[in-house]
Every structure is written in structure tokens, then in C-alpha cells.
TrEMBL record:
Endpoints of the signal sequence: 1-22
GO cellular component: fibrinogen complex
Domain Fibrinogen C-terminal span(s) in chain numbering: 268-487
Gene3D superfamilies in the record: Gamma Fibrinogen, chain A, domain 1
Domain of life from the UniProt record: Eukaryota
Name of the featured protein: Angiopoietin like 6
């Protein structure tokens, strides 16, 4: 019983081993052969040890292809596999990196597309704003042209108004002359009527005398007749005097003026011209009025008002405001040559100021009066105006007075008018201040501005006749006089 069981067990073990070796031999044929060679003697040894022996014929597998016998192949394949795995891991990491970069680039591309859309919208908006800005610029240019046209019309209207005012004054003078002529003619008619009455009386007296002579021809007393003759002679004499007066009235005389003068000049001891009003005072003329001046080193003749009743006299008045009768919103040429009425409001002229202040050292005195009658003054110990090539730039000295210093801020500044903008402001100060002045940015004083009645005024800009240190810029002064005097 033990022998068959043992044989059966050995058979099963052999079959299992053959199955395992067959499987391993498919991969390692050389190793299977060597193992088979080693097992064969063991089997013989086993068979010899037992009581029975068996011989099994196992079919050999057919191998195709080249057989490589190497004892180190397994180790080489494992290292290559590790290297391949490492390479695969690296390539996987690179692939992941590329995926991440691709995702980043995709997000960047989407952001770029968004930015491009925003840029296109911004470009469209900028184009729209540029078009609006261009339209605004064109509109402002048109408004500026229209404003300049209106200002030109205003200046023309102002000049026409001044011309009409002058013509009106001429008509007033002619009307006064006609009125005086009518009055004289009425006087002549009265004299003629009196003369006719005297003639009638004389004729009646002659008739009465002749009748009396005829009636008393035999009377020896000649006294009444003598008296009648004397009456006749006196009547004839009165008649002759009346006729002589009428002839003298109608007789033209070259000594009498044909037209009443508009400006009354003072009677002077010497005819002039003088260098300035100080020269007039030194010549013995101490009456304030209009005098003929000619500055030294100049052939210019000019008329100016000489003020001898203030501050020891000898002052040449270069500007005066008192009733608003003259418009001071003028252009450059008018401020250069001067304008206004010498016995009222006027501006002497920048060119005249230059020649006057070039011949000696002058001081400036500004006299002001408010609407309550308070008078103040501001005096500067030197005053000079540069030539037109330097835009009549103002040069001032030190201040003294009780009005406050509102002119030193304008020192060393060029003169500015509506058509010559020489101030430091971005706009034209003459346009806002409605005058011509040595504007800076823009004015602490504006003595050539608009003359408002009553003092405090309401205006869009500070364009009144003001002195900032005296009542401020919203108070228009009643009277202002600028005058210079040689030191």
C-alpha cells in the first residue's frame, strides 16, 4: 500500500514541476534545460532509493527565433526598466508642465483678447472724445471770432458815440451863437423902433416949430425958437448916434471871434510852449488850466492840464476821472495817442508820457475821492514809462501816502489793452477789467475801468474804477486824478 501511494504522489509532484518549468522555460529556456539536467540525476537517485521506478517522457516545447543565453540579462533589463520609468516620470512631469503652461497661455490669450476688446472700446471712446474736443475747440474759436467781432462793433459804436457827442457839443455851440445873434437882432429891432419913434417926434417938433415961427414972425423975442432949434439939433444928434450904433453892430471886426471857444485857456504872460507844468509854474504862471507843452529832445507839441492848486502846484495831469463822460475801454493806438477832454475826463497818452518822463526824474501822485467826499492820495518818489518797443513798461519808486499801496504790484509790467495782451494772466485782463492798464494777474488797481455811480457795484468781473487798498475792488471811486511832477 505504501509503494503505490508514494508513486502516485511523486507523479503528481512531477507534473506540477513540469508545469512550472514549462512556464518558466518560455521565458528562460536555458535555465530550464540546466534545471532539467540537474533534476534527472535526482530522479534516478530517488528511483534508486524506492522500490519501483518510472520513466516519464515529457514533450519538449518548440522554440522559435534567436535564443540569447545570458546570465546578466535580467539585471540589465531591470536597470533599463528603472531608467525608462525615470524617463517616463520626467516626460510625464514635462507633459504636466506643458499642460500647465498651455492652461496659463490659454488664460493669457483670453486676457489678451479681453484687453484687445477693451482697447478697441477705449480707442472708440478716445476717438469720440477727440471728436467732441475738436468740436468744442472749433466752437470756442467761432465764439472768440464772434466776440472779437462784437468787440470791434462795440469799439466802432463807441467811437461813433464819441463823434456824435462831439457833434452835439458843436451843435450846442452853434445854437448858443444863433441865440446870441437872435438876441442882438432883437436889440437892433428895439433900437430901430426907438429911432423911428424919435424921427416921428422930431418931425412933429419941426412942424410945430415952423408953425410957431410963422405965427410969431412979428414978435421980437427969439427965445422959444432958439429952444426949438436946440431941441431939433439934439434930436438930430440922437438920431445920428443911433444910426452909428446900428452900423457898428453890423460892421464885421477881425478882432472879435466868429465862434465861442470850447475850452477856455488861461491868459499867460508868455505864449509857451513849456517843457512841463513845473516849467510853467517856474515861469510865473500859477493858474490851473490847459497849457501847451513840448518835452525836451522832442518835436511833439501836446496840450495838458496843469494843476497848480494842489501840493504846491506844478503837476502835469496825465489822467482824470470824474463823471463817466468818456469811455476808457479803448484800443492800443488810442491809449498811445491819448483821448478825452482836457477840461474833463481824459488820458494824456502813453507816447507823451514816455517823452515827458524821459527828460527828467518825475514823481507820481494819485488823488482819489470816494462817494462820501473822503479824499486820499498815494505818492511814489519816481515814475517812468519805457518806450513802445518795451510796451510802455511801468517803473515805480517807493510809496508814501494814506490811500494804501495798490500800484507797486503793477511795477515793471507792460501796458495791456484789448488788442495787445501783455499781462501774465492766461486770458486778457483788459477784457475782464474793461480798460487799459499795466496789468499783472490781473489788477490791484484799475483806474481806467468802468465808472460806476454810487460806489459799490455789481458786475461779473471787477471792472470798476477801484484802488484795492481803498474800499476794495468792488467799489468804484467817484474822482481820480493821476499827475506827475519833476523832482
Amino acid at each position: 500500500m505504501d509503494a503505490p501511494v508514494t508513486c502516485t504522489l511523486l507523479l503528481l509532484v512531477g507534473l506540477v514541476m513540469l508545469g512550472v518549468e514549462g512556464r518558466e522555460g518560455a521565458f528562460h529556456p536555458d535555465s530550464s534545460k540546466s534545471e532539467g539536467a540537474q533534476k534527472r540525476p535526482s530522479r534516478s537517485s530517488d528511483s534508486k532509493a524506492g522500490r519501483c521506478s518510472y520513466t516519464f517522457i515529457v514533450p519538449q516545447q518548440k522554440l522559435k527565433g534567436v535564443l540569447c543565453v545570458s546570465t546578466e540579462s535580467a539585471r540589465a533589463n531591470s536597470s533599463e526598466t528603472a531608467a525608462l520609468r525615470t524617463l517616463l516620470v520626467r516626460q510625464q512631469e514635462q507633459l504636466d508642465l506643458l499642460h500647465r503652461r498651455l492652461e496659463q497661455e490659454g488664460s493669457l490669450a483670453s486676457e489678451v483678447r479681453v484687453l484687445r476688446r477693451e482697447s478697441s472700446s477705449m480707442n472708440a471712446r478716445i476717438t469720440q472724445l477727440y471728436a467732441q474736443l475738436l468740436n468744442e475747440i472749433l466752437h470756442k474759436q467761432e465764439q472768440a471770432k464772434e466776440q472779437r467781432r462784437l468787440e470791434g462793433l462795440l469799439l466802432n459804436a463807441t467811437s461813433q458815440l464819441l463823434q456824435m457827442s462831439k457833434n452835439y457839443r458843436d451843435l450846442e455851440r452853434k445854437y448858443e451863437a444863433l441865440a446870441s445873434t437872435v438876441s442882438n437882432q432883437s436889440q437892433i429891432m428895439t433900437h430901430l423902433e426907438e429911432h423911428c419913434q424919435l424921427c416921428d417926434i422930431a418931425k412933429a417938433q419941426q412942424d410945430a416949430a415952423s408953425s410957431a415961427v410963422n405965427a410969431s414972425a412979428s414978435s421980437p423975442e427969439p427965445k422959444p425958437m432958439v429952444s426949438y432949434i436946440q431941441r431939433d439939433q439934439s434930436a438930430t444928434q440922437n438920431q445920428e448916434e443911433t444910426l452909428q450904433e446900428v452900423q457898428e453892430f453890423f460892421t464885421p471886426s477881425s478882432d472879435l471871434p466868429t465862434e465861442a471857444p470850447f475850452i477856455s485857456y488861461p491868459v499867460t504872460k508868455t505864449p509857451g510852449p513849456w517843457q512841463d507844468c513845473q516849467h510853467v509854474l517856474d515861469s510865473g504862471e500859477n493858474t490851473s488850466g490847459i497849457y501847451l507843452l513840448r518835452p525836451r529832445q522832442s518835436n511833439r507839441l501836446l496840450q495838458a492840464w496843469c494843476e497848480h492848486g494842489r501840493a504846491l502846484g506844478g503837476w502835469t495831469v496825465i489822467q482824470r476821472r470824474q463823471d463817466g463822460s468818456v469811455n476808457f475801454f479803448r484800443n492800443w493806438e488810442q491809449y498811445k495817442q491819448g483821448f478825452g477832454n482836457l477840461d474833463g475826463e481824459y488820458w494824456l497818452g502813453l507816447e507823451h508820457l514816455y517823452w515827458l518822463t524821459s527828460q527828467a526824474t518825475y514823481k507820481l501822485r494819485v488823488v482819489m475821492e470816494d462817494w462820501q467826499g473822503r479824499q486820499v492820495f498815494a505818492e511814489y518818489d519816481s515814475f517812468r514809462v519805457e518806450p513802445e518797443s518795451d510796451w510802455y513798461r511801468l517803473r515805480l519808486g517807493n510809496y508814501q501816502g494814506n490811500a494804501g499801496d495798490s500800484l507797486s504790484w503793477h511795477s515793471n509790467k507792460a501796458f495791456t489793452t484789448l488788442d495787445r495782451d501783455k499781462d501774465a494772466y492766461s486770458g486778457n485782463c483788459a477784457h475782464y477789467q474793461k480798460g487799459g492798464w499795466w496789468y499783472h494777474m490781473c489788477a490791484h488797481s484799475n483806474l481806467n475801468g468802468v465808472w460806476y455811480r454810487g460806489g459799490h457795484y455789481r458786475s461779473r468781473y471787477q471792472d470798476g474804477v477801484y484802488w484795492a487798498e481803498f474800499h476794495g475792488g468792488s467799489y468804484s471811486l467817484k474822482k481820480v486824478m493821476m499827475m506827475i511832477k519833476a523832482i
